[in-house]
Design a protein that fits this description.
Blueprint: E1 5-16, E2 23-34, E3 38-42, H1 49-56, E4 64-69, E5 72-73, H2 79-89, E6 90-94, H3 105-115, H4 120-133, H5 149-161, E7 167-171, H6 179-196, E8 199-203, H7 207-211, E9 215-220, E10 223-225
Parallel strand pairs: 3-8, 3-9, 6-7, 7-8
Antiparallel strand pairs: 1-2, 1-4, 4-5, 9-10
Helix pairs in contact: 3-4, 3-5, 4-5, 5-6
The protein binds adenosine-5'-triphosphate (ATP) and magnesium ion (MG).
Length: 266
């Protein structure tokens, strides 16, 4: 276990079904994520990205293998303790907003604090503070269902940060949004990382979003692969590498970010 590891997965296996219908969604994942890192999990649909994220976030249990959160073996915790750890350390931003549309924006953001047993006045103060961070404090009293898609996702981010988490798990956080709105959500997530040191773990099909992370973890058929085969449509000639005896050789210029956004591994 590394000292600065916030999450560590050891030989994680997840199977569904049994007998003839046994399916191995994750076939043995080893992974260490350090505090403050930005990590993209990428791969084709059905490759196991969400399954991995759910296991890392303690939302589901592995068939075998272990998840350590800041050195603590999750398997050693009872369900109540797991829930407590999750509430204390993690925030969630998923593609489907999972907001209660009929409750107010403020009530939606307050919810995790209510579950954590934070007092009434304190939780309102903190929820308004989180809404201010996503520039939605003026919508606190609106019903969540009346907001635009981008605003809903900002409420989700406010709800994710209200508990002051170490890690934000985002599964396709911009998947339902137009490019400009998605960009704003992306910037917001990255600013939380830059300003508050929150670790970001992002599942995405968006190559530009993945490229903004410190590293990309490619999942293929439930395993991490170092050199995934790129889809034929996006295969490009490789830029020449500097010769090994010329470490300071000039790097090829970075290509400008293409528009429209590229999708990977669809
Ligand atoms: N509860 C379940 N029962 C049976 N199979 C499941 C279950 N959940 C996931 N799977 C299977 O496990 C595999 C991995 O699913 P997962 O949701 O992790 O994929 P993903 O990489 O997130 O895909 P996508 O990009 O489409 O979201 C898929 O083949 C899926 O059908
Ligand atoms: Mg998924």
């Amino acid at each position: 276990m590394r000292e600065d590891a916030v999450l560590e997965a050891q030989n994680l296996v997840k199977t569904y079904g049994k007998g003839d219908s046994l399916f191995t969604a994750l076939g043995g994942i080893d992974l260490t994520i350090r505090q403050g890192e930005k990590v993209a999990i990428i791969g084709k649909s059905g490759s196991g990205k969400s399954t991995l994220m759910h296991l890392l976030a303690l939302l589901d249990k592995p068939t075998s293998g272990a998840v350590f959160v800041e050195g603590q073996d999750a398997a050693k915790l009872k369900n109540g303790q797991l829930g407590h750890l999750r509430g204390q350390k993690f925030g969630f931003v998923f593609q489907q907003f999972f907001l209660n549309g009929h409750a107010s924006v403020l009530e939606n953001v307050i919810l995790p604090l209510k579950i954590a047993g934070v007092g009434r006045a304190e939780r309102k103060r903190r929820a308004l503070e989180a809404l201010k961070q996503v520039e939605l404090d003026d919508k606190a009293k609106n019903k969540a269902k009346d907001l635009s898609g981008g605003q809903k996702q900002r409420v989700v981010i406010a709800r994710a940060i209200v508990g002051n988490p170490s890690v934000i798990f985002a599964d396709e956080p911009t998947g339902n949004l137009d490019t400009a709105t998605g960009q704003r959500i992306e910037d917001l997530l990255f600013s939380l990382n830059a300003n508050q040191g929150i670790t970001l773990i992002v599942v995405t099909h968006d190559a530009d979003l993945a490229a903004r992370c410190d590293r990309q973890i490619h999942i293929q058929d439930g395993r991490i692969v170092d050199h995934p085969e790129p889809p034929a449509a996006t295969r490009e000639p490789k830029a020449p590498e500097p010769a090994p005896d010329q470490p300071d050789a000039p790097q090829p210029p970075r290509r400008p970010t293409p528009r429209p956004r590229r999708k990977v591994h669809l």
